[in-house]
From TrEMBL:
Keywords: Transferase. SUPFAM superfamilies: Nucleotide-diphospho-sugar transferases. The lineage of its organism: Bacteria, Pseudomonadati, Pseudomonadota, Betaproteobacteria, Burkholderiales. InterPro entries: Glyco_trans_2-like, Glycosyltransf_2, Nucleotide-diphossugar_trans. GO terms for biological process: single-species biofilm formation. CDD domains: Glyco_tranf_GTA_type. Transmembrane segments: none annotated. This is Rhamnosyltransferase. It comes from Pollutimonas nitritireducens. Residues 5-175 form the Glycosyltransferase 2-like domain. One of its GO terms (molecular function) is transferase activity.
């Protein structure tokens, strides 16, 4: 098996240095990795220098041209040597073990697996809300799911995260890659396409990265507005695999129990977060009724709106 790693970057700062260092260490123990490509959106700090110091290939693009889906498609198309698997990592996802890359790639020993993603653990500075989100969404036990699991698992059957995910390139090309323009969740889009085509998605719990965000309530609103936009535009995913309602209710109950036992002082803050997430999601799903200035104002990814 031959694999390439692709990392989009922009002003990665200290966490990018930690990511690059961990990636170098992991690659030294993962002979399947033939190369690492950093696609940098013209950073104004030392992000590009860190990539070059690590021996990574570097491609610079105009930040105005960056798009979560399209930029990754272009990077894949430009790879030489026809890799069997491409691994995507984000600049703030630090491999938690030298074995993480190898464990992720092992999922492709099953020829039915088209997508594999790893387990995300909270950063050391994660607040209780962020820490719970990681423990809820990324469990200790891995699994492999296919089309037959869709109705029982709902949207979880086609969940994936490009913070640390890998794709079988033959299937990626056959299915047309990511949508050329997507506000976010291009990973879920492709996972759903793959499952519908008869392939499988693997969650590899032993492939771990440190990755979390201490979002403010307003950032949560904007993020969930964008998630709502995605689910409006790709409504077929909900029709095929069910909506997000059931998983959302389970999340709320899990978070309540987690905070009561570990950080009860954070319960009021969590209520604000959850109210704004629900509001943002509902507005995003109805974004076609909103004027463009409000779409831009509500969105985390304002450049998407032109």
């Amino acid at each position: 098996m031959r694999a390439h790693v692709i990392i989009p970057t922009y002003n990665g700062g200290t966490v990018w240095k930690a990511c690059a260092h961990a990636l170098q260490a992991a690659c030294a123990r993962t002979p399947q990795v033939a190369g690492i490509l950093v696609v940098d959106s013209s950073s104004t700090d030392d992000t590009a220098a860190v990539a070059q110091a690590g021996g990574f290939a570097l491609q610079r693009i105009d930040p105005r041209d960056f798009n979560h889906a399209g930029t990754r498609n272009t990077a894949c198309a430009g790879l030489g040597g026809e890799p069997d698997v491409v691994v995507f990592l984000t600049q703030d996802a630090i491999l938690a073990s030298d074995a993480s890359l190898r464990e992720l790639l092992c999922a492709f020993s099953d020829p039915a697996v088209a997508v594999a993603y790893g387990r995300q653990l909270p950063h050391a500075d994660a607040n209780p809300i962020a820490a719970h989100a990681r423990s809820f969404n990324y469990r200790e036990r891995g699994y492999i799911v296919g089309k037959d699991d869709g109705r029982s698992m709902g949207l979880k059957a086609v969940f994936a995260s490009n913070s640390f995910a890998a794709y079988r390139m033959s299937v990626f090309k056959d299915l047309g890659g990511f949508p050329e323009k997507s506000i976010l969740s291009e990973d879920m889009y492709f996972a759903a396409k793959a499952v519908m085509a008869g392939h499988k998605v693997a969650y590899v719990a032993d492939a771990t990265v440190l990755h979390s965000h201490n979002y403010t309530p307003l950032e949560e609103f904007r993020r969930y507005f964008d998630i709502g936009v995605f689910h409006h535009d790709e409504a077929w995913i909900g029709r095929e695999f069910g909506g997000a309602g059931g998983e959302g209710k389970r999340f709320l109950m899990s978070e309540f129990r987690y905070l009561v036992s570990r950080a009860p002082a954070w319960l009021p803050r969590a209520c604000v977060h959850n109210f704004l997430k629900i509001l943002g999601y509902k507005l995003g799903k109805s974004y076609t009724r909103l004027p463009l200035r409000l779409r831009r104002g509500f969105s985390m990814h304002r450049k998407y709106w032109g």
